[in-house]
Specification:
By secondary structure, the chain is α/β, with parallel strands linked by helices. It is about 30% helix and about 25% strand. Strands 1, 2, 3, 4, 5, 6 and 18 form a seven-stranded mixed β-sheet that branches. Helix 1 runs parallel beside helix 9, helix 3 packs antiparallel against helix 4 and helix 3 crosses helix 7.
Length: about 450
């Protein structure tokens, strides 16, 4: 069956649905397709469900920090099955809500694997979709690791749907997924939690001094972090997994009940047959210009985790890029260019860690002359009142201008403090101007003036 459209969108997450919705409201005939339930990674398999689990573990964390301070919390523990059921109160209804919302404005919603046949034609099952434009927002998938037994690993998606969790869990990789899930698992009562990171340090996109503190906090929680440990083989025997990994001291082995992939993600575009329509790709996805249009095929736009923009793979970045793509689609020309503001990111461990702007090494490489303001804040009121001993900040301030060129935070409230700093950096506030802001007190934001 051949069908004609103005636009076909591939991917029903944050980088795709807004494009379909806006173009349909503008009178375009639009179809959208996804092989997975509508809603995307963030809403169904990532950010949102993860933070619902974290919200439950905050109760455990708070009770531990406030021991001896008046809170009586004997025998507090997490019921894993009930926590997952709580998460599903959000995720289970999301696909229907997203899909019906699109259908209500006239978008044709399709399910299945999409594959380009020739220029202007996309095949989905037995249907051939002909369109003037295609917008690809297919997201990312766990990267291929290439060792024997890799198929035995549990993905992050599967981890968020476990009906129960065993007593020994290993995470492969030392990025934010591994750290966040390791914190969840340990506070949920998993007796042995191990992170195997092949590099010399984990969380490489975050400030090294703050990462050291985060590692101390994680180890105090009971997480075993093993650096320079590359997994070579996984074997399953009965209900156990035997993990072989290489280290600087030679090959080592361990046994666990669950091994989880936390080693990063890659663009989910392998099955689209982009070669058939001459779309150039790189390691980070579809090559696009600053207008979010493919550099090699003018009929193709892309946004989010499968677009090679150089921007971090974050949900709000995907949404921003989708808005730019939509504007240019409706304009019929490359008129609106991306102009990324400073982009904050966060690791939602407890305590969380957040970052925006340049790391010290990056600022040095760019030839920026800057002062570093660094301090541990475990004895500051905001940390002391909640019993958190591991908190700190590092802010980079350009010498001549007083601009904030980088900010890195660890501690309670850091995920919101970084948002205030992102506004300050976006509008070009100097450190002295930020000091002059009067914040509600006592609050986490009111600490910012002392950090700059």
């Amino acid at each position: 069956m051949n069908e004609e459209f103005d636009l076909v969108v591939i991917g029903a997450g944050s980088g795709g649905t807004s494009v379909a919705r806006t173009c349909a409201k503008a009178g375009w005939k639009v179809a959208i397709v996804d092989s997975l339930p509508y809603g995307g990674t963030c809403a169904l398999r990532g950010c949102d469900p993860k933070k619902m689990l974290i919200a439950v573990t905050e109760g455990i964390d708070s009770s531990e920090r406030m021991k001896g301070k008046g809170l009586q919390s004997n025998n507090m523990h997490i019921d894993w099955a009930k926590m997952i059921a709580f998460k599903r109160t959000f995720t289970d209804k999301m696909p229907t809500r997203v899909e019906h919302g699109l259908e209500n404005i006239g978008v044709i919603t399709l399910h299945g694997e999409a594959r380009f046949v020739v220029q202007g034609v996309l095949q989905v099952g037995s249907r051939e979709l002909h369109a003037k434009y295609f917008h690809i927002a297919a997201g990312a998938r766990p990267m291929t690791l290439g060792f024997e037994g890799e198929g035995l690993l549990t993905t992050s998606t599967e981890f968020l749907d476990l009906e129960s969790i065993p007593s020994r869990v290993v995470f492969v990789g030392g990025g934010f997924i591994a750290f966040e899930f390791a914190h969840i698992a340990r506070r949920a009562g998993v007796s042995e939690v191990i992170i195997l990171e092949m590099g010399q340090r984990p969380l490489v996109n975050f400030d090294s001094d703050l990462v050291e503190l985060q590692m101390e906090r994680s180890k105090e929680l009971g997480i075993d972090i093993r650096l320079e440990s590359r997994v070579e083989k996984v074997i399953k025997t009965d209900d156990e997994f035997h993990v072989e990994f290489s280290t600087t001291q030679g090959t080592k082995n361990l046994i666990c009940d669950l091994i989880v992939h936390g080693a990063g993600r890659v663009p989910n575009i392998d099955t689209l047959n982009l070669e058939a329509i001459g779309v150039e790709t790189g390691k980070r996805g579809i090559k696009v210009n600053k207008f979010m249009r493919s550099t090699s095929n003018a009929a193709i736009f892309s946004a989010g985790d499968c677009a090679d923009t150089g921007a971090p793979n974050l949900t709000p970045v995907s949404a921003y890029e989708a808005r730019i793509a939509t504007k240019n689609l409706l304009a019929g020309e490359d008129k609106f260019a991306v102009d990324y503001p400073p982009i904050p990111s966060a690791v939602f461990t407890l305590p969380p860690m957040a970052s925006i702007g340049l790391l010290e090494e990056d600022a040095h490489q760019q030839g920026i002359e800057f002062d570093v303001k660094f301090g541990k804040t475990g004895d500051w009121y905001s940390s002391m009142r909640v019993g958190e001993r591991y908190s700190a900040y590092k802010v980079l301030i350009e010498k001549d201008s007083g601009r904030i060129v980088g900010a890195h935070l660890l501690g309670p409230g850091s995920e919101e403090q970084i948002n205030v700093l992102s506004i300050a950096m976006k509008v070009g506030m100097t450190a002295n101007q930020l000091k002059g802001v009067i914040f509600a007190y006592p609050s986490y934001a009111s600490d910012l003036g002392y950090m700059v």
